[in-house]
Amino acid sequence: DQQVKQNSPSLSVQEGRISILNCDYTNSMFDYFLWYKKYPAEGPTFLISISSIKDKNEDGRFTVFLNKSAKHLSLHIVPSQPGDSAVYFCAASASTGGFKTIFGAGTRLFVKA
Amino acid sequence: DAMVIQNPRYQVTQFGKPVTLSCSQTLNHNVMYWYQQKSSQAPKLLFHYYDKDFNNEADTPDNFQSRRPNTSFCFLDIRSPGLGDAAMYLCATSSHSGGGETQYFGPGTRLLVL
Questions:
Q1: CB A68 within 8 A of CB A32
Q2: For residue A100, which phi and psi values (nearest 5 degrees)?
Q3: Which residue in B35, B102, B104, B109 has the most chain A C-beta atoms within 10 A of its own C-beta, making it the best mutation to test that interface?
Q4: Cis-peptide, bond into residue B18, ω within 30° of zero
Q5: Is A84 helix (H, G, I), strand (E, B) or coil?
Q6: From the CB of residue A76, how many other CB atoms can be counted at a distance below 10 Å?
Q7: Residue A66 CA, distance from chain mean position
């Protein structure tokens, strides 16, 4: 049972344009969401997060949007740069109930120069 | 730089031959995790330690064991590797657990079972 789904295995975007990576979840207990970025031969690194009390969190070129009613979040990267080419993992957790963090399968982003 | 280190980066073992993967951290974090990631799949939590308290996931096979002799080190033992255990094994740490924690990952050990 995949509680966190990233339905697009890959995404290709032109440099300077917007990248939008999507993530859906099924468990309504999730109240904290994170995005991790992974380069080849490296472990995932934390990128940005959002609590369920917010619907938007911004950090420089990266913005995460949360739609709780749709159980959907998205990561926007504007403008996209070739160095953003990586695998992006969506993750979700709950502050109660002892839930572990659940990861999605990742979306591979290619930013073309 | 504080970090999570995994050795070796690549491990080849034979079917049924025990293998141990190592993880160390200089972050002094309380929590250490082991994940298994197969190609194009989500990282799957095998178990985690909060200090010395071991927490096994319900669906982690008995073939997988772990040891944490001190704060800095954690080991993953695969007692009798099968072909299906070939995967990337990721170690991660966090300062706390219980939801919302940022995890810090090592580069992973890719296990090949012949």
A1: no
A2: -80, 165
A3: B102
A4: no
A5: helix
A6: 16
A7: 10
